[in-house]
Amino acid sequence: MWRRALPVCLLLSLLTACQPPGRPAGPGADAGPGPAAPGTGTGTLPGGGGLVTLRYFPRGHPEFDSAIVQAFEDAHGHIRVAQVTLEGDPRTKVLSLIEAGEVDVIMGAWVSLPELAQQHLLLDLTPFVQRDGVELQPHERAEMVEGRLYWLPVRNAVGMVFFNPDLLARAGVSPPAPDWTWDDFRRLAAALRDRLGPEGVQPVSAYEPQLLYQTMVYQQWREGPVPPPEAVERALSAIGALVADGLVPPPPAPDEPTPEDFNRGRAGFLAAVIVSLADGRLVGYGQQTPWDAVPFPRFPDTENWLPVYGDESVAVAATTPHPEAAWAMVRFMTGDRGAPVVAAARSIPPRITPEVQAVYREMGLGPRVIEALAGPKHPVPGWTEEDWPLVELAFSLGEAVMRGEQTPEEAAAAYRQAYREWQQRQPGR
Question: Over the range 117-129, which residues count as b (16 or more CB within 10 Å of their CB) and which as e?
Fold first, then answer.
């Protein structure tokens, strides 16, 4: 089973190879109206047909679900959407609905889409993507398993560094540039510490130091099931230097500050994964402070991008009698046309279009935040279940360095040895 990383090793499961048997015939199998060619804004299939009603297993957030359903129905005049009531155990309910052919489109907020795919209960979306010429972004392609696609992301979680411009101004420190490096981060954080005391750099939660370290690893780890020793060694050295300078405290970090603490300007830099622009604690506070944001720093020879963590995706039940109409809804929810609706529901859609940026400006997000969200993104790497112990070791060694239990050199040597043993168990890798 494939896995993808989230902060503090919260795992999003992926699957290996799934070829659902007995699924509908694929593109063109819908007897009722569905999408026309991409971008035409009609719900009529060639040959006509009557009204199609899709059964939608919702996200469970009324603001989001109502808005996306209404916008989709407005754009597809011959398709209506009936939301399934969320009662009891969602996993048990969605299984029974799929087996009975009583659900078409499924949001993965309450259920595991990989598990459903492993049980051959999700429709293979690959033929639709190929037929309609959908250009997948890197973090969307990362969801493919052996060239097949069973779900697409609707809402993303991205990582970035927030900073308090008022606090920086008081310290006489210029805001960081979007393309800053880890050396820049170290210099700016040291300036805040020296001029404002220990509260100049105050972590926001227990996972922030680990998130900084994991990002350092991700920036160098693009391919393969586990990070190479060179990437881990470099990240260990970099996070060790920050700890030695007193710029990153050992985990766990202090208790989370209250909104009032943020508004008093306690912190200078904060690292976080942002899931929602409303209830995510940083952007929500940012609208009050106001905070600003930039992408994570980078190494001089690595690219500057936001790490994308899988959050919530949408899929089609393998037993749907309306695959074309269901694909139309998936395409709307995950494409350019639905992106402003997702953004207006205070979420981060996969595509930050000019219309999405306009929505964010109306919400009061600062230009640096919007620029960062619209910039390059990269999915965090994946690995197999068998390789997870070595990946976990890479992350736990970073924590050991932050706690002062090992030096960066000792931790790097331990990882190199474990990596060699892993290679011996994996012929051809």
Answer: bbeebbbbbebbb
